[in-house]
Each structure stands twice: as structure tokens, then as C-alpha cells.
Amino acid sequence: MTSTLLVARETTNRVARTFSLACRLLPPAIRDDVYLLYLVFRTLDDLVDEQQADAEARVEAVRGWARGEPGAASPEVAILEELSSRHALPLDALDDFCAGMRQDLEGASFETEPDVDEYCYRVAGTVGLVMASVLGTVRIDRARPAAAALGMAMQRTNILRDIDEDAANGRVYIARETIERFGSLQPGAREPLLRDQIPRADALYERGLAGIGELRQGNRAIAAAAAMYRELLRQLEREGYGVRAGRAVVPRSRKLRVAARAAWRVPAPAARLAPEVEPA
Q1: Domain residues for 157?
Q2: For residue 48, how far is the Cα from the chain centroid?
Q3: Does residue 221 come out as left (phi exceeding 0), alpha (psi in the -120 to 50 range) or beta?
Q4: CATH of the domain at 111
């Protein structure tokens, strides 16, 4: 086993506990590639969030690779090269992910809900697209919108969970027009805003979950991951829509219950049902 794979496994288990639980449901043959993919996205995101000196260069290396341009080598490019020998990675999605990372590097703000949707697509919807390419799809034209929607749903969930943490770091990922409409992001005063935002995330989950049957493998793992992330929305509701400051946290026992229910409700893997169909 390579040292990179060991790092990928350890990183997933250490910093993505919800996702790590879902990964246990992945077929062993594909699980390590998912760990490697997660390492690429997580590393770039952390470099950008922490404003590391080499963040821009590492993002640009991946952007150049996705565009087929000669560029500097990087650990992330090396992993993507390896994965691309086994999977048809969507290069447009990787390029768009880098555009999202540049937004963070530049400290972008968001005026409207479409601005937030665009950002959520770039930093998370794209991750759904690349993940779907690794798991395999039956009908690409149906799988891509669903995979992007599921990633966007999870990002919107993260935004709502992390309002106070982001504010402490000088970041606001809620649209300015939405804040002005509903009044405040402050604890105890943001219930109207959360009552508007939670259904937006729920709608994206519904669109994403509708496409799980298009995956060739990993259906149960993705259903479990979505259910655990979505439960954060229910936790926000149970805790009074942000009446207190801080993150909403779903107890591990509840995570496991919702994951189990979701995993065993999904249909048989699409790989058994039909061959891959490219869009016309």
C-alpha cells in the first residue's frame, strides 16, 4: 500500500467522520479510489481556507491539468493522474472546482441566491460529479444533474451548520439579499432565515437522491452519506433554528440509525440493470 493511500485513508477517517462512516458501505474495490479523491479535494480546500502560501499554486496546478495545459506537478495532480488511468474523470468539473477555490482565495461575497448556488456547485456539486464518475453511472445525462444537486445540498447544509464559525473567521456564505430580507444571522434572531434556507437544501437533497439509482455501485454508501448530512437540517430544527450559537451536532447513534434506514431503502445497483448510455 502506498504512503499516499495511507494518508488518504487516515485523512478521511480523521476529518470527515460522517463521510468515513458512509465509505464503509462502498465496495472494497472502489473504496480506496474514493479515499484518494477525497484527499485531493480536502487538501485543496484546507490549503485555501488556511491561506497557505502555496494554496494558489496548488489550485492552479490542478486547473492546468484539467485543461490539458502544461503546468507544475503537485501531489494532487499526481493522484488525479493515477485515478484518470482507471476512471473517466470529468475534467470540466475539476476546472469548475478550481474556480470555486479561487472564489475563496479572493474572499468572494454573495449578493443573491443564484450566486450562492453557483458557489455551491463549484465547490461541492463538482465533487458529486467526480465521485459519480468513479462509482460509474448508467445514464450520464440523468446522473450528472443529480450528483451535482446532492453535492450542492451538502454544501448548503455545511453553510447553515457553520454560520457562527464562518462569521468568527470573517466569512459569510449567506446571500446578502437573504440576510437583508430576514434580518439577522445572530443566534436567537436567525429563525426566519433558517426557515427559508433549510427548504432550499431539502429540495436539492430530493433532486440528488432521485439519481442514486443511476449509480453502478456505491448506491447505499451515497444514500447513507446524504441521510446523515441531511439529518443536520433536522438537528437545526430540533435545536430551535439557531437559538444558541455554535454548530449543530447529530449524535453518532442517530447518524447510524438514519444511515442504516437510508442504505437499505435504495434499489439494486444500476450496474446490474442496464449498460452505460451516453447522452445523445
Answers
A1: 3-272
A2: 16
A3: alpha
A4: 1.10.600.10
139 compared with 253, residue with greater pLDDT: 253
Model confidence at 273, in pLDDT bands (50, 70, 90)?
very low
Residue 150, domain member (yes or no): yes
Measured CA to CA, the distance from residue 26 to residue 37 in angstroms comes to 14
pLDDT at 28 over 80: yes
Q: Which residue has the cell 484539467?
A: 66
Report d(CA 271, CA 213) in Å as an integer: 9
Summarize pLDDT for 211-225 with one digit per residue, the tens: 998 889 999 999 999
Q: What per-residue confidence (pLDDT) applies to 45?
A: 96
Q: How far is residue 73's CA from residue 57's CA, in Å, rounded to a whole number?
A: 10
**Does some domain include residue 238?**
yes
280 part of a folded domain: no
The cell for 187 is 443566534
* 5 CB burial (10 A radius; 0-12, 13-18, 19+): middle
pLDDT tens per residue across span 106-133: 999 999 999 999 999 999 999 999 999 9
User: Cα 68 vs. chain centroid, distance in angstroms?
Assistant: 25
> Which 3 state secondary structure label does DSSP give 150?
helix
Q: Is residue 265 helix, strand or coil?
A: coil
Residue 70 is assigned to a structural domain of this protein: yes
Cell numbers representing residue 2 in the block: 502506498
- The count of domains in the chain is 1
